[in-house]
Amino acid sequence: MLRALQATDTERPVLWVEAERYDGIEAMRAALEVSLRSAQQGGGGSLESALDKLQACLVIDGLEQIQAREIDAVDDWITQLQTQLIETQIIITSQVDLAQTRVDSYVRLAGIEVEAGEQILSHYLRPGTPTDASSWQELVAFADGHPLTLRLEAMLINHFGSSAIALDQIRRRGADLLEVQKRSSQNRRTSLRACLSLAYDALSEDERKLLYLIANAPGGLFSRMLEDSQEWVGDGRSAIAGAWRWGLIEGTNRGEPRERVRMLSPIASYAVARWSKERPDEAKSITMELAKSFAVMAAVISTHSEQNGGLPNMVGRFEEELPNLLRVLDLAEKQPYDPRLGLMASGICAELMRYFFVIHLGHVGSQVMLRGARIALRDKRPRSASNLLTMTVGLAHRSQERIDVTAAMALMEEIGHRSDDPETLGNVALCRAITGSLRDDNDVVHEQALSAIEHFNEALSFASKSSDEIADLEDIQNDLSSSYGLLGGALLVRREFATAANAYRRSLELVRGQGIAVNAGQLHHQIGNCEAYLGNLSDAAVHYTEAAKQFHAIGMRGYLGNALSEFGHLLLEFAAESDWPSMPNNEIIEAGIDDVAGAIKGCFARYPFELSACSSALRNLFGMIILISFSNKEKNLAFPTSLRTELLPWAEESVCAIDEVWWDELGSDAVHTLKALLNLEAAIAQFERDARDAKTAPIKFYRLAAACNSLGVIGGHPQRGHHWLIAYLWRRWGLPSDILKEYAMQLGESF
């Protein structure tokens, strides 16, 4: 199928989902969203918009291998996708019918042709191995065109020494399997199982154990991990070599330090079934040890992210390990009798929270946290459940996504009614404050934030007097920090700027450990807002700059551009005689340009436009242009030309294509403002070139003035544009007041 898609050359990126690797639709969807976010290098938007943006070909494979109730869930999901997708192609390779999914065409795929089957056998056959025409033809026929069966047949020929002996052994094993299954004839599935059974019997004890380990790691395992864990496999490297020789595993970066091994789903299913049946006690023990190693790994990855520059590495490592970590949650849900798995699942969920926030997949993260909370409640750990529910609701608040937290809040309220633990009650109040913020109910935010602060202070007092670990104190301090942050937001809405700034500062003082990297930048930004409102411009600039540094260091897209934009707008507030703050360095500004350009593309690449997002993105674009214009190295700082040459024409055509009766006035104004801002950037670049060549004349200012005059009401307006131009000529070029007056007279009354 994959080769056929490649041969058709549709230029669509293929996203292949092996359904049988996942225990539920949520895990399948989460893995797909993470892969999409990685392919887009961040970015926002829903799964559906991301698929359409890529014009992807989504292949869902192996539905017949999953449970019936999950097939129904996948059917519902695909049907929902079909109502929302426009540019995406969906292909389902399955031997089961879907009741609701609308199918445009059916294609029956037979096995590969005889000639191709013979080529596969020859390819894997050891040179000089005896073969004969009769057994050769029967082996090709027995595989029935299944590439994996053919490859295993070749390995069996190599193992037994000739095609005739291999065929005899395969016949015997196939007959035994038919007898067990009460079948009268072979099919592709029984042929594969016969070959897998013979190959498995030929493996050593270590090789079989290795297959079981890899089969329980849907994300694959690093070879060095298997080599180092001698309590799992005595000689890991030899076991890997043996399994690889049989073609039972595959991998990436072979022979290198980051070699990672995995296996195809049919082999994984067989390996798990055989080892679990033959060694049930050892299978349970190995599964538990593997789950423990995943939980420890999650904690180590998260801890390392606290170091400078550690967050990008955390994102990359969690992306690799996410299927394995979610596997622990699957095990915990399926095995309620073992509380150790529940503890591991809770720990993994807590470590994943920042990952989902940083990659802008709050809705996926919220579902993972909710699963962990339900496991904790089942295991009678209400405090742990309340912590995870707080993360669930907190992700909804921070990620700026429309996430339904109804189920999480219902569980939280239930816990609150049955608990007198101050930390748990603090979590309940904190979640009420967050949901109040989501509803724009500022009175609730203010009241519940104060309540949360009171409860967490009490919990902190108790924890400080007990023998609890430092980590427990840090968790409470971080929750207390979040409460002060919400209180600061409520006071900011009330325009109590000085008190709000103090609340944010207290929040910044309390943030601990892993929370520093993510939260510090946001708190500095909010303090900057308060200081700007108070007229303390220099202090505001310091906090905006610090926020930008934090966001740049951890790669938080969306936040960096916003902080730099506010810094740019702030520059226009400084009086002519006052000193300006230090500018951010060019590396940070370049990253901010990329960030804002991505936001602009996200807003204007799909019609109808989301005007609130457009307004915010256009304001940030204007702020970045202001910042660039006052830099000393403008020629190295510019927005991508594709905004002007590709995005803008498409946006203009989209607005103009609307019927005149339904004219989109606000959408048209957004496009008009985008064009004016891009014209302003171009005019600045031209003026810079002319000024450096000392050819500047009054008429040259008309391009700048015209761009400022054309700014729309969305994202900027002419008055602010004129304010920028005066500051630009005065601050950037040092033009004296008498020349500015002369130019202003020539430029018109608006100046």
Shape: globular
Strand content: under 5%
Radius of gyration: 31 Å
Number of domains: 5
Helix run count: 33
How confident is the prediction overall: mean pLDDT?
85
Structural category: mainly alpha
Beta-strand segment tally: 6
Sheet with most strands: strand arrangement: 1-2-3
Kindly, what is the distance between the CA atoms of the first and last residues, rounded to a whole number of angstroms? 66 Å
Approximately how much helix is present in the residues?
A: 55-70%
Stretches where pLDDT falls below 50 for ≥5 residues?
A: none
Query: What's the story with the biggest beta sheet?
Result: 3 strands, parallel
Q: What would your notes on this structure say?
A:
The structure is a single chain. The protein has 751 residues and is mostly helical. The chain folds into five domains: 93 residues, Rossmann fold, CATH 3.40.50.300; 89 residues; 123 residues; 115 residues, Alpha Horseshoe (Serine Threonine Protein Phosphatase 5, Tetratricopeptide repeat); 201 residues, no CATH class. The chain is built from 33 helices and six strands. The strands form two sheets. It has a three-stranded parallel β-sheet with strand order 1-2-3, with no helix packed on it. A three-stranded antiparallel β-sheet has the order 4-6-5. A hairpin with a 7-residue loop joins strand 5 and strand 6. The longest helix is centred in the last third of the chain and has 28 residues.
